[in-house]
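### Sample
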Amino acid sequence: MSVIDNFESWKDFLGDRLHDAENNGISNQAISELAYDIGGYLSTEVEAKNDQEQILRDLWNAADQKEQHAIANIMVKLVQNEGTK
């Protein structure tokens, strides 16, 4: 099973990547911009595989650029306390 097949696994995966970035000195601003870029990519290039992904895609597509940045920042906050490490 892939980490993207289960939302909890996906959050753990993102949490691990976030902690890796922070431990390697990546700034919060850089993490925020990367989350925004990834959100844009996922909304246009990756098919939603579950209800949570579809909701995130719908929210992203309904939002303007400022709101999309807010969604990206909220996703970062969502996974700050997640991870398997």
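The two ends are 19 Å apart (CA to CA). This sample (DUF3243 domain-containing protein) is used throughout the tutorial notebook.
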